Amino acid sequence: MRPPFSPKSLLSLAGATALPLLSASPAAAHVKWFAPYIVGAPPQPIAATLGNIWFWTGIVLVLVFFLATRFVERSPAGEAILQGLDRATDPLWLRLDDFVRVVIGAFFVAIFAIGGVYLTPDLKTPAEWVSWMQLLIAALIFSRRTQPLAAAGIIGLWLLALRDYDIFHLLDYLALGVGVAGYLVLEAMPNPDWRARRFEVLRWGVAIALMWSSLEKFAYPDWFYPLVEEKPFLTFGMPRDVFIPMAGVAEFTMGFGLIWTPLVRRLSAIALFVIFNAAVYPFGRVDLIGHALIMAIIVAIAADRTREVHFLPAVKRALAGVPAGLAAALVVFVTGYWGLHVAIYGAGGNVGAAPAEHLTHTPNAENPHGVTGTSDGVSDAVNAAAAYQAAMDRMHGPMMNGIADPDPDAAFVRGMIPHHQGAIDMAETVLKFGKDPENQHFAREIIDTQTREISEMRQWLRQRGIAEP
């Protein structure tokens, strides 16, 4: 049975409320996860992801995990595992509503203490009264009579953020905010049937938020390049262009797992908690605050011992439902992401003007990114010149070696691979030090196109058993 107060209805309500405030104005440039970016810039074509072998490798690995989990879940061992999880999480399950309410309240107290933000440290505001509104929301959470007012306050903060941030940027935060608001409303309801859906709404909110935000890794992989370069240990030794698409697949599919059957969703929640928890120490306390709410909800999902399966239960219980459901989710979210971008900014995007940047973290001084690593244009120019020269130095030897191949066809491909990589390195340099929005758009197009062409040329070499330069 469809939840009477589903995330979809909540999203529709918030969207209808927000419509008068929305317009397709030029996208603002902000900094997200260490990288300056322009939301209105055209995303990488989805064909680039569909042609990426590492994307499909990730999909296959996750499907094997999900299918194996469902196979076990359908056997007597599945119920034994679920009962073991029940015993481990019983103390939390018995006080799960108290846990969730305390965490939500503590989160809003924490961002009140930080000051100058909306719903997360990534969304900054100069309005001091917004922080006091967050403290009021925290106070309203501890009485069932006032929880709906707290829920309205959360949605109100999201709508207020539209004054300062682009609508497409804020969609990353809508589903989680709506899920939390929906939980607060349903938890306060006297109707037991409606109240029984409160954790499901929370789960859907987190799942949608994760699946939506994961698409950035496919649409704008260059946003993540500075982060990977600054903290290379995050890639577990994998090359950047292998790690980013597979990380996107992991985030999307684990989010998808949260809305599937009990064992799949609980194991997905545990996996996500481990992933999020691993990032706490490297990024510090502010990042912990930014992710605390979603981490706590993931813990609540892992502790949720309910066995009911709502929304297409027959599909979810069938083994074939796993690949079918994942394929359907990908189609819906990819169509929504790329389609909304075109609807808001047009097919060519809309980069607008580049205002001052905001940072959510302190960058590493040895690996500066954006325009924050220096305080004057002269230093930027010197660093950019050095980066361009380094790119050319890296390119020259392999390219000359490649074009020396006696086979003209092989010489062309072996020479063009380092040539393209040099162009990518130069494009990344202008993204790091440049300020012109149109130039940055060109740079992203170069990165997208030439990364795809390098992959195709490497495939050509592999098919013929020819070594790269």
Which descriptors apply to this entry?
disordered N terminus; single chain; mainly alpha; 21 helices; 2 strands; 469 residues; two-stranded antiparallel sheet
Mean pLDDT: 80
Q: How many structural domains in the coordinates?
A: 2
Amount of helix = 55-70%
Distance between the termini: 59 Å
Low-confidence stretches: 1-34, 353-378
Query: What kind of sheet is the major sheet?
Result: 2 strands, antiparallel
Strands side by side in the biggest sheet:
1-2
Number of helix segments? Answer: 21
Strand content: under 5%
Give me the Rg, rounded. 24 Å
The number of distinct β-strands equals 2
Shape: globular
SSE topology string: HEEHHHHHHHHHHHHHHHHHHHH
**Which structural class do the helices and strands define?**
mainly alpha
Transmembrane segments: 53-72, 99-120, 149-165, 171-189, 242-260, 289-306, 318-340
Signal peptide: 1-29
Region (Disordered): 357-376
Domain DUF305: 385-461
Quick recap:
It is globular, with a radius of gyration of 24 Å. With 469 residues, it is mainly alpha-helical.
